[in-house]
Every structure is written in C-alpha cells, then in structure tokens.
Please model this.
Amino acid sequence: MKYRRLTKEQLEEMHEEFINFLAAQSIDKKEWDDIKNTQPHVAEQEIDVFSDLVWEGVLNKAEYLEHISAQSMNLFHTGEKEMSLISIIIGNKEIDITTTEGYKWLQDNLLDESVKLFTATKAYGEFPNEDKFKIIESGAVITKGQLYQYFENLVELGN
Model:
C-alpha cells in the first residue's frame, strides 16, 4: 500500500465510487460478498488498492496545504517541481493563533519581534504525492490557499 487505507467513514462516503471500482473489475455485489466471506485478505487488498487510487487523485489536485498549531503556521504551495513554504512562528507563548483572538493578534503584530517569518522551497523527491501525503499525515489539511496567498503578498511587499 502506497498511502493509507481510507477510514470506515471515508469508505462509506465513497460507497458509490467503490461500487464503480469493483464493477470496473467485473465484481458485482454477490461476488464481493463472497470475496469478503471466503477470502477476506483479497477484500482487504481491494480496499487498499481503492484507497491508494483515491489518495492519488486527491493528492494530484492538492495545491495548498496548511498546518497550524498554537504558535506556528506552516503554509505550503505545491508546485509542479517543488514545494514552497511560508512558516510563521510566534515566540510569545501567551498567543494562540488557532483562536480568533490569537490570529487577529498575529495580523496586527506581524512586525512584532516575537514573530518570525521564514520562506523556503524544496524540490520533491522521486514521488511528489508521497511528499504531500507525509505533510498531511503530520496534521496538515488541504486548502484553497487563501492564507498562503495572503502571506505571500505580505512577503512580496516586504522585499
């Protein structure tokens, strides 16, 4: 398995897609029920293959990732050949940027000495989607990139 198996909830949400996946392999409901009962390891393999296909599709479309914690914000833009990062670290432990008040403080105090802003780019390894997946597994979420673009504009203005 290349990524990880979809959760039970994710599989339930993708019920129709899974049926189509099985149908593409000429597996109908009766045969699927038989496989689950008599060859559970084969059923598990089918779910794993389906999960990898779903992840591959999601990762191919993922353009922005965000990982935000109380004192840091890591914003990623996943380009074709490399990934760009804008990282903001808050040195003041009293501020929690996951709250509305904390985020407002950050917006109002970007030039405060406790705020450190870094940018970086990194070329992908052999498999770009695996690099993206590792970031998601560490807690990042896929977004439309509004925060990345907001801070990218600030960084550009500062140069």
Remarks:
- The beta strands are 64-69, 72-78, 82-90, 115-123, 141-143.
- The longest strand covers residues 82-90.
- The chain has seven helices and five strands.
